[in-house]
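Treating backbone geometry as a discrete language has practical consequences that deserve illustration. No coordinates are needed to read the tokens, only the vocabulary itself. For completeness, the protein is quoted in full, as a sequence line and a line of structure tokens:
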Amino acid sequence: MRHPRPPRPPSPERSAELRRRFAEEARSERPDLATLCLLVGAEADGTLDEAGLDAAQVELDRLAGQLPFRPGTPRAWAVALRDLLGERYGFHGVAADYQRLESSLLHEVLRRRRGLPILLSVVWLEVARRAGAPVYGVALPGHFVVGLGTESGAESGALEERVLVDPFDGGRVLSGPDAEVLVAGATGAELRASMLEPAAPLDVVSRVLNNIRAWAARRPEQSAVGLWAIDLALLLPAHAARLRYERARLLVQRGEFAAGAGELEAYAEVVGAVDQAVAEEVRGEARAARAMLN
């Protein structure tokens, strides 16, 4: 079975503008999840122009407008979202979606109504948020889901009901054992309360970019995709220092030996402050990369 080729990238000028906007949005007081995910999509797909970005936002608004007006409890919200997005519009995922870059791009998920758990969850989150639902993302290990409900309990004086749904499974409402099975299947570990905490928008975007990097890492011919995913991740206010090392090694893999060696040397300077042995290993990689120039 042949898998579709990834979309062609934007021009360098367009890419620079998208990255500027991505960094600005990521550093804003309230980063907008849909905007950030769509900018990721535009970095992947050169055909996604301003009209396409606007159309995706309009589609999220349109879907939100079809939900019942404030259906009530978190469970009622969950059922309304499942009925609309999962059953009426057919948003869901299948195993083959993990092999497609489009499954990590919000505009393509809106078009195909298929995607990875985290991107389908973004659809649920953005549609529910626009409709006024008490909604949040839940970054279970290996399988992102959506939570509905809050801890305010302002009217009842008690903790409000909380409900988990799985957009990958069409919005199925999860029981406690269901969530335990998802975590055990992904990691073999037990479900812990800390895993159910709301995921911040920037954490969601970081995980989306991690998925794209993992997709590209399994396909050496798609190293350009891995490179822009790293570059966007480095624009997030908080990111792992090791991303710099990953970027440098990817440059070497792509045959950009001088640039890769320079970044390896810069990383060695940083890591040398805490681990000289690792720093010397990295400097050795830099020397090997420069030797490839001869």
About this structure: Strands lie at 135-138, 145-148, 163-166, 172-174, 198-199. The chain has a mean pLDDT of 91. The first helix runs from residue 12 to 26.
